[in-house]
Amino acid sequence: MGRAFEFRKARKMKRWSAMAKTFTRIGKDIVMAVKEGGPNAETNSRLRAVIQNAKAANMPKDNVERAIKKASDKDTANFKEVLFEGYAPHGIAILIETATDNNNRTVANIRSYFNKCNGTMGTQGSVEFMFDHTCNFRIPAEGQNVEDLELEMIDFGVEEIFADEDGILMYAPFESFGAIQKELENRNIEILSSGFERIPQITKEVTAEQMADVEKLLEKIEEDDDVMNVYHTMQE
């Protein structure tokens, strides 16, 4: 098993945001997908992926359809994806993915969290290089042989594949998302969910007290409505 497997296992054991927050994130993803490629999922691959994720998160179909309809309205504000970087106490690098309709508000909020928790907000590129930007796909395990599938999908960019209790998970570089999505659809393999993650290249071990300091900052950041994902280099 490789880094993606260990990363996934650690994040799965970690607390996760409430269902309401998950739905909010998916709603923003729908708006960005519709604004980018239109409301027709058949012709909008990004929207197809978001709808699959909504289904995996048990988001009601009515909510999804409402979000698509709302996103199609010209008066609906679009969300801009903005990346923030910095350091928590004890030298832990933090990478924050946001989706915001008011960049000034988001910048001010993120900066305040770092300041209040003895962290340091960094400049663009200051920690991003410490993380590998990856994409992932989850498919049903039934009828699939992991080893055979791995050999077949290498040509499309898949670097790591493993099975767990929820199916088969594939990891690849960020740039391979479109090729893998297209190949799975061509093979009529159901995509249960897909997404992007940033996997730290190196993690740092900290004491229990130091971990509490870092967690305090992480919790403040994760509670912000504009924040979509938070990644860090602390060993979990």
From TrEMBL:
Name the InterPro entries for this protein: Integrase-like_N (IPR017856), TACO1_YebC-like_2nd/3rd_dom (IPR048300), TACO1_YebC_N (IPR049083), Transcrip_reg_TACO1-like (IPR002876), Transcrip_reg_TACO1-like_dom3 (IPR026564), YebC-like (IPR029072)
* GO MF annotation list: DNA binding
Claim: Transcription regulation is one of the keywords in the record: yes
Gene3D superfamilies linked: 1.10.10.200, 3.30.70.980
The UniProt entry, under Pfam families, shows: TACO1_YebC_N (PF20772), Transcrip_reg (PF01709)
Task: Classify the source by domain of life.
Answer: Bacteria
UniProt keyword list: Cytoplasm, DNA-binding, Transcription, Transcription regulation
Question: Where is the protein situated, by its record's location annotation?
Answer: Cytoplasm
User: Could you tell me which residue ranges the TACO1/YebC-like second and third domain spans?
Assistant: 79-234
Query: Would the keyword DNA-binding turn up in this protein's UniProt record?
Result: yes
Give the signal sequence positions.
none
Annotated TACO1/YebC-like N-terminal domain ranges read 4-73
Per the record, the similarity remark reads: Belongs to the TACO1 family.
Mind telling me what this protein is named? Probable transcriptional regulatory protein M0M57_15055
